[in-house]
Amino acid sequence: MEIVEVKGKVFRKFITREKIDQVVNTLAGRINSDYAGENPLLIGVLNGAFIFAADLIRKMEIPCQISFVKYASYTGTQSSKKVTELIGLNEEIKGRHILVVEDIVDSGITMDHLLKELHKYRPLSVRLACFCLKPDAFVKDFSIDYLGMEIPNDFVVGYGLDYDGYGRNLPEIYKLEN
Ligand code: 5GP
Fold this sequence. Notes:
It is built from three helices and ten strands; from the N terminus they run E-E-H-E-H-E-E-E-H-E-E-E-E. The chain is α/β, with parallel strands linked by helices. The strands form two sheets. It has a six-stranded mixed sheet, with helices on both faces. It has a four-stranded antiparallel sheet with strand order 1-2-10-9. The structure holds guanosine-5'-monophosphate.
């Protein structure tokens, strides 16, 4: 489908399934080789990253574990610039190689907060795998070790990303039609 409607808003196809698969394969290849001989703990950021994390972990050829945290900084299609912790961490972080898995970094406020929190638990290392980044919205300065792609500053849905809770099930990524 080229055009979809999610809760009354119109979205146009933006990133195809083929492109998504290619991005995931490339990132997974790099992660597998960088973490060879290690046993990282992947931390997916709910809700949006659940599909990317599921795709990525099935390409992991190293022993690894996965856990999820849930933060929120978005209401509707606008970043609220405030981060609230909803679900915290249960796993032992100390002494582990942590790979945070995120679907999208926009302003970077949510991720900056999470990365700072994680460092308090004294991990061996913390790296970030992110499917896409909106460089024009990014206001922080952390680096993204495994970045799938850069996208313009438009609101997107699909592949785990929602508009007001809907649209996560779309297998491809769609951009809000202006
Ligand atoms: P940030 O704190 O970087 O501004 O926002 C990060 C979070 O906002 C992401 O984890 C994601 O859940 C949500 N987000 C940012 N941009 C978009 C977007 O274009 N579409 C959707 N559906 N969510 C977004």
